[in-house]
Amino acid sequence: MEMQWVLKRKINLMANNFEKTLPDQDWDDILGISDEFSNEEKLVQKTAHEYSSKELFPRVKEAFKKEIFDKSILQELGKLGLIAPTIPAKYDGAELNHVCYGLIAYEIEKVDSGYRSAMSVQSSLVIHPIFEFGSDEQKKKYIPELIKGKLIGCFGLTEPDHGSDPSSMQTTAKKAGNGWVLNGSKTWITNAPIADVAIVWAKTDDYDIQGFILDKNKHKFRAEKIDGKLSLRASSTGQIHMDETHVDDDCRLPSVSGLKGPFSCLNKARFGISWGTVGAAEFCWHTAREYALDRKQFNRPIASNQLIQKDLVDCQTQVTLAKLGALKLGRELDKRKINPAAISLLKRNNCLMALDIARKSRDILGGNGISEDYHIIRHLLNLETVNTYEGTSNIHSLILGRSQTGIQAFY
Ligand code: TGC
Ligand code: FAD
Question: The pTM is what?
């Protein structure tokens, strides 16, 4: 009986002999998306890729495990011109286009969403509002130092009781003589514990929203680290507390009032996320493919199973289309003022796509999928945050729903 079983299994294995040829050379870029980039864009991508793989990748396992963000990363990025690359040379910016910014986010997030977060906040949520809405003095004082990563910034919009609905914020700014007095708390703020400068949004007596530049050297405010995150652990996150914080009027961003101030910064950062998530997803897909080709079960590579191939093809399809979408969005941002709902479409889709790919890839690695050594579980945990911050998936659905029906369904 046992002999019969062994014989049957042997025959099965022989029948399962699979045909193997070399994979197509363009399997990882089957639509030739990389041909769409200019020489300058390719050079920026190469710089970001080399830095990320040589300097960030070797650090990330320890950083994630110990919940540490190494501040020198921002200076290193600054030296290479990888912070706020769209800012003009007048303020020491690299004067590049949005696609370059996207490619930087893509390369950094291949390593870790937390590292991309540090770059995004500094570029889109701190330098951008000072550049767009700041006075000449504010621009001269802060932008060159922030762009070099010598100063670190953070962006305080979310509050303990008001996340998806910042219009209900409770942080107040009361006029006092020539300046303002700020009271309130902001939470879940990336870079807050290490920031020299905080852009904080507050409500005035006439229910207007104003932005203020808080400077650690000048103003009295407290920043506390939030410990115990199981996602984005290589990023520093905290709270900001303002208790009768006095600021002069020259610390207010003079050229904007209302929610369009913070929201227009979010447009930039959400665009970066639409690229960054493609990087994280692509890393997971490539790792899963390599693993599936090496790993043998039932005496043959698991990549020879139809079900595994289907998952790998889903990864390929979703990553390719998400990247095309992010590229098209970047090209449009470089040409014209775009409907912000288009940014919601890509932020929402690419976060959900990346989560799905990370989960599929983790599954392909079986037990090894949960090991830090393969990095996929870290990406998966990080992407849960990326799907939530800068507007949750639901919130972007409602932004898009309002855009196509004209009916707002938030409340
Ligand atoms: P709503 O009535 O829609 O708009 C108020 C005013 O803002 C204007 N506006 C925009 N302007 C530019 N870009 C956009 N995307 C804009 N969206 C709206 C709008 O035209 C209006 O202007 P005006 O002149 O008429 O006053 O505002 P609402 O209160 O109904 O809000 C709607 C909603 C839900 C879409 C909004 O509140 C929202 O987006 N909620 C999500 C909150 C969010 O994304 N928070 C992010 C916090 S920062 C963060 O997460 C950083 S993570 C960083 C990292 O580590 O990478
Ligand atoms: P809530 O708004 O309470 O939402 C909870 C759930 O309810 C979500 O699923 C949401 O989609 C759903 N929901 C809410 N309203 C509706 C509705 N009308 N219809 C359907 N569903 C709804 N903020 C900053 O200002 N600066 C930062 O630098 C920053 N960095 C962050 C870093 C990390 C690690 C994290 C986790 C968050 C960060 N945030 C930051 C905050 C982030 O933007 C908020 O967490 C996010 O906007 C969601 O707000 P909330 O957490 O209060 O969730």
Answer: 0.95
